[in-house]
Amino acid sequence: MDSRNCQMYEDEIQLLEEEIKLLTEKYEDNQQESIFFSEEEILTSIKSLQKEFQGESKGHESTSELKAQLESLETDLSFLMKFTGIQFRSHSKKTVEKDGNRTVQKHRLSGNCHSLCFQLEFQLLEMQNKESVSPVVNDLSIVMESGEDSDMSKFVSSVEEHGNLLTFFRSLSTYAEWCEHRRCTFLHFK
């Protein structure tokens, strides 16, 4: 072979190696990325699913039943957001470990309850028995924008220690509601 052909092949090999490197990086980024869903993205997905199911019925359920279920779920979600005052802005979930009957997922949530913003990060360990799945919350970390309220800081520390998300959301809802009442009262007297 002459040197010109060798150089041409070497250039081609180098271009292919660079392309492989870029594709590998892109693949790794996609694998490590967490998926964030905003409220608009959820509604867009719901609408696209509705369009997909308009003409399709695979025998499992009719489209009218699916639409009714979807509308019912949307109504329930709307009611819960109004009732609790909690609105989630983003959520990401990443599976950290999965083997047999054990799954570990890392979750990140952010949102607000009335005028208080919060961010949560935790690991969810799910152990599956023959009859049920038992979830356990580990490594709970809560960030609140509640100012210098020492009672709230103590409460958040206690919740993080015990990993009790239900207690956190129940108490947050009540606390934020009363903060809102207090703010309105002080505005009234200004």
- Head-to-tail CA distance between termini: 90 Å
Low-confidence stretches: none
**Order of strands side by side in the largest beta sheet?**
1-2-3-4
Give me the Rg, rounded: 25 Å
- SSE order: HHHEEEEHH
Structural class: alpha+beta
Structure write-up:
It is a single chain. With 190 residues, the chain is of the alpha+beta class. The protein folds into two domains: 3-44; 85-188, no CATH class. The protein contains five helices and four strands, in the order H-H-H-E-E-E-E-H-H. It has helices at residues 3-32, 39-54, 63-84, 150-162, 165-189, and strands at residues 86-99, 102-113, 116-128, 133-144. A four-stranded antiparallel sheet has the order 1-2-3-4. Strand 1 and strand 2 (102-113) form a beta hairpin. The longest helix has 30 residues, at 3-32. The protein is extended. It starts with a helix and ends with a helix. The model has no long low-confidence stretch (mean pLDDT 80).
Identify the notable features of this structure and list them briefly.
190 residues, alpha+beta, 4-stranded antiparallel beta sheet, 4 strands, 27% strand, extended
Short structural summary:
Helices cover 56% and strands 27% of the residues. By secondary structure, the chain is an alpha+beta fold.
